[in-house]
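I keep forgetting this: the sequence line spells out the residues, with the fold written below as integer tokens. I include a record here:
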Amino acid sequence: MKRIFLLGPSLFIGVGIILTFVEYDFLIGLGWDPISAVTTDWPSGLALGPYGLWMSATFILSGFIMFIFAPRLHLDLGPGAASQLGSILLTVSGLAMAGLAFDVDPTFRSTPATWHGVLHDMSFVLLGLTLLPAMILLGKAFRDDPRWHDLGIYTWVTVAIAIPAFFLKGFAFYIFLIAFVVWNEIIAIGYYRLQR
């Protein structure tokens, strides 16, 4: 079971990269550009393409892995307000990531918003509102635990990089995504090593 936690971030990046190449022309048709319009229906728009079920399944599976990982991380870190609240927020982040499986409404459209597009957008907002605070709190919990101590500063540096990148959008969105995915993978590796 411990190894499955290592899968979530790698799966998300791997499927995202493969589908971006496979659905490249489809994404361009949505208005996406890998340099100037990075966040125009990417990566969510991948779920609208011909192989979109793979992206939807990836959102669900990656979110579920985060959802079950967060309480385990809390148990490993032990009691404490930062550990408990950080883990709760990370659990909600997992649910929000799974909620991204609701199909996004294309940015450029002539039709009104759909119920699934609204749910997708709400999931994205919830992910942003819970993930970064979870990381800040877990950074403190890591600093308070000698076994995780070195990952505290790393977590806070990641947040310091990710916050402006999240709000700047454009090309900076790649930085946000990479920072978040790498952090997730490093925390999962740390957990795996400690459990061994």
Remarks:
- Residues 4-195 form one domain.
- Helices lie at 4-22, 24-30, 52-77, 81-99, 115-144, 150-168, 172-195.
